Amino acid sequence: MRLDIITPEKTLYSSENAISVICPGIDGDFQLLDSHASLVSALRSGKLLVSDDQNKSIELPIASGLVECNRNQVNILVEEAI
Predict the structure, then answer these.
(1) Using H for helix, E for strand and C for coil, what is the string for 24-64?
(2) In angstroms, how far is CA 75 from the centroid of its own chain?
(3) In order of start, what are the domains of the chain with their CATH numbers?
(4) What distance in Å separates the CA atoms of residue 39 and residue 25, rounded to the nearest whole number?
(5) Is the pLDDT of residue 7 over 80?
(6) Going by C-beta distance under 8 Å and a sequence separation of 6 or more, which residues neighbour residue 2?
(7) Residue 20: which of 80, 61, 72 has the closest Cα?
(8) What are the two backbone dihedrals, phi and then psi, of residue 36, each rounded to the nearest 5 degrees?
(9) What is the dihedral of CA 4, 19, 50, 68, to 10 degrees?
């Protein structure tokens, strides 16, 4: 799936081949996978965990924000990376 993690200043991460994103939701962590149902959710401060199709993983601490998932396009808008 396509993934973009964006702050007001810049794009922090962009990938065409993400397979998993674990997000710190305001009601608890949740995971987005390929072909996930459409959703929009608020995020709390915490860590985003991203895995790609080459078994590479990144951990990105973030401030609060929003995530939007639609048709294998995930956009994560955060106030800042911590």
Answers:
(1) EECCEEEEEECCCCCEEEEECCEEEEEEECCCCEEEEEECC
(2) 7
(3) 2-78 (2.60.15.10)
(4) 12
(5) yes
(6) 15, 16, 18, 72, 73, 74
(7) 72
(8) -65, 150
(9) 40
Query: How many angstroms separate the CA atoms of 14 and 4, rounded?
Result: 4
Confirm whether pTM is higher than 0.70. Answer: yes
Where b means 16+ CB within 10 Å and e means fewer, 25-55 reads eeeeeeebeeebeeeeeebeebebbbbbeee
State the Cα–Cα distance between residues 23 and 17, nearest whole angstrom.
Answer: 17
38 and 71 Cβ atoms separated by less than 8 Å:
yes
Tens-place pLDDT, residues 17-70: 999 999 999 999 999 999 999 999 999 999 999 999 888 999 999 999 999 999
